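*Target chain*
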Amino acid sequence: MELYLDSADISAVRRLARILPLAGVTTNPSIIAKQGKPLWDVLPALRDALDGRGTLFAQVMARSAPEMVEEAQRLRERVPGVVVKVPSTAEGFAAIQQLTALKVPTLGT
C-alpha cells in the first residue's frame, strides 16, 4: 500500500511528511485554488516539503489534447519530477498517448 496526501497545504505536507511514510502528494486545480497562491509557487513548495521522499502529482486544466500536452510539458519544465494528471476523457487519452511517446509520466484521473 502507498499513502498519498491529496492536499496543497504546504505546512501540513511538511509536518506529515516528517512522521508518515508518504509516497507523495496529489493535487488538482480546485485543491491548488484553495491555497490562494499561484500554481507556480505552490507546486515547488510542495515538492520541497516532501524533501525528496515522494512523488508530486499535478493536473492539467486544458481541455484539448494539444493544450494538455503543452501544459504538461510546461509543468515538467517548471517542476522537475512532477507526474502529470490528465482527465480520463477522449481528449485526455489522446494527450496521454502523446505524452507517453514524449516520456512524460502521466496519471489518468
User: Anything to note?
Assistant: The chain has a mean pLDDT of 96. The CA atoms of residues 65 and 95 lie 5 Å apart.
